[in-house]
Amino acid sequence: MVDYSPALMTDMYEYTMLDAALKDGTANRKCVFEVFTRHLPEGRRYGVVAGTGRILDALEHFHLDDEDLKFLSDRHVVSPETIKWLENFHFAGSIKGYREGEMFFPNSPILQVEGTFGECTLLETLILSVLNYDSAVASAASRMVSAAKDRPCMDMGGRRTNEWAAVAAARAAVVGGFKGTANLLAAQLYGLKAIGTAAHCFTLVHDSERDAFESQIEALGKNTTLLVDTYNIEEAVKTAVEVAGPELGGVRIDSGDLAAMAQRVRNQLDALGATNTTITVTNDLDEYALAALQTAPVDSYGVGTMLVTGSGAPTCAMVYKLTEREGADGTMVPVMKKSKDKATVPGRKLAFRSYEYSLAETEHVISGSEEKLAGYVADPAWKNLLVDFVNHGQIDGQWQGHDAIVAAHEYHATALGELPIAAQSLMKGEPVIPTETTVL
Known about the structure:
By secondary structure, the protein is of the alpha/beta class. The protein folds into two domains: 6-137 and 313-439, nicotinate phosphoribosyltransferase (Alpha-Beta Barrel); 197-298, TIM Barrel (Alpha-Beta Barrel). 37% of the residues lie in helices and 20% in strands. It contains 16 helices and 19 strands. It has helices at residues 12-24, 52-59, 66-74, 80-86, 117-121, 124-148, 163-175, 184-190, 200-205, 209-220, 233-244, 258-271, 287-292, 305-308, 370-374, 401-417; strands spanning 30-37, 47-48, 94-97, 103-104, 111-116, 153-155, 180-181, 225-227, 250-253, 278-281, 300-303, 318-326, 332-334, 348-356, 359-368, 383-384, 387-391, 394-395, 435-439. The relative contact order is 0.16. Keywords: Glycosyltransferase, Ligase, Phosphoprotein, Pyridine nucleotide biosynthesis, Transferase. Residues 153-323 form the Nicotinate/nicotinamide phosphoribosyltransferase domain.
């Protein structure tokens, strides 16, 4: 694996701001930063949080070695005094937010980072790059899983994006409801189910399709899935059952009118006695194509390009904004931007979701000073959406690793089921529940 420092996965101005703030004394001011999005991608009803576990993984290694410090010094990015400050840097602040698999809406306080200005500002680019992409993939995956109607979806998008984005996408897809991935590094790093058998080139390299099928079955067993659309699908299915017998595990179709072909192949397999042989379809699927295949006899889907590109929304437009900072007298002061169309809500946040008849009704965001929030009493029936990830530099490991991904996958299914049914509509519309913001 490439050896790199997460502390350099950032924009240069994070370090130049740190340098200036150290010189004028504001670097040590306590601050609260917030990650939120002002709007969902056009027409989307909800978003799905993903990537927090990856941020925590990166945070464990968020420090600079001698080579990194030399790079910053040689490029005159920061002063010698700042280099000295960075030598022993480790994030000592606290982070809380929405757990992975949770739904988010406009102005949801997805992540809150509390610490000194110096340490919090260095995390901005890394946090946004992870949350924006991973949440976009998880949100697309969620829509696809809904459209698939409980038929498993698998990630096959590795060759359609950057090699490292492919690993992140595989993880985020599982958070959003997918069952596995073709990407072996993602499977290794996160303990995900790996899937895959053969491509068209495997058939083409053999002297006949029968030779290719016999070779694959000899290597992988009769339970394997054979790709049947290299030449003629009907002939391929016939040959596949002749070679493997009715115990053949599955066939995959990667071209043509998938619904029509799946129906013909299902009928042919049944007529040949292969009634338990499954059908997988691939070929540039998105949530709309999956919805169109709901009545077709398909058992599972492989999704590539549209998954790893967020199905047309490759980012969630999340931003990282300062909402509270320590004043010159030591008291915490809520702050806000007043820029046209980019105004922010001052103060740290609480977040809850209310329900009616077991369905989510409203997202409640409560903003104010630490003192005012401490005295706020929420409706006991409301669900508290914020969990603690980091407490004064100590990372809570329950949000990392394979078990955390499984928990997020399961939580997502539950949270999606709590939204009004309109959330699963593919028609464009407003967020499925409103967000009400109260400033104390």
